[in-house]
Amino acid sequence: MPTKLFVTGSTGYIGGDALYEIVQAHPEYDVTCLVRNSDKGAKVGSQYAKVKLVYGTLDDAELLEEAARKADIVLHCAHADHEVAATALVKGLLSHPNERPGYLIHTSGTGILLFKDIERGIYGEASPEIYDDWDGIKTVTSLQDNAPHRVVDKIVLAAGRENPALLKTAIVCPPTIYGKGRGPNNQRSQQLPDLAKYTLIEKHGLQIGAGKTFWTNVHVADLSKCYLLLVEAAVEGRGRATWGDEGYYFTENNEHVWGNLSKVVASEAYKQGFIQSDEVVSLSAEEANRLRPRAQIHWGANSRCRAIRARKLLHWEPKEESIEASVPEVVKVEAEALGLIEHHAAKVAVS
Q: Which residue of 52, 211, 244, 344 is 20 to 30 Å from 332, comparing CA positions?
């Protein structure tokens, strides 16, 4: 019998790219995707003729429970903070017979590491604190309850801890993700494209405060490779992976300082002729949030981690270009979306 995989978030940026990676590697899998409506379903169907569709939302607990009951593995990429969905997926997987344990691979995010800066209300300053998923695994899986994403992380961790024979859980925790996705719908990330977008709109570079905050980063294709390796480990029956309390996987390939990345973006926007200088302007958290909701934490707080577990156990090896190398294409794409390419070309023709 082919492996039955149920995927949420298949039309999103993360889930869409993960689905692409998995289907390319294993066309023999029996894949079912949750989609919100017929328009989204058509997009998935046009790219994957063999993929089955279930129509509904993350609030449809009974539907999710039934889909998880039928699946061998659930890849949950739709929403890191949706308690109803996480609870329903766990409940469905726990209905498996003892001889067929279920596997849940849940997507969290390194926003969970922002809690100290958020509590202090200090943005734009560097932090030396770096979390890791190997020696520091117990710290990472027992963060304080008010940390972002922590509520659903706890649901997943508790389910794996309390039912180790019936349910194997893993949490994938990506940082800043960049690169063009390969999924059927949303192929755009958020943090870097939005930084480019507002640099173009405001006509200058942007940073929060002193611009000294660190985030780790990963290319979306490298992230998807980690999902693939975990799915393959589940198919093998645990495989090389660890699950439950030790099934927590950071996925990073490097780290950047937001102020430095802002300079790269502004320099590239200037080089491409969209702004008049490569100046970077410092904004307060309040000023940044008026431009973009939650800008103060996405560009102005620290999220630093090291992805040791996936490298050691799964032999995960990120290979894609750096976040800095991706900036020229990001600036171009955002300029096109804002209608600046046409306007720029017209100006050049007149001059």
A: 211
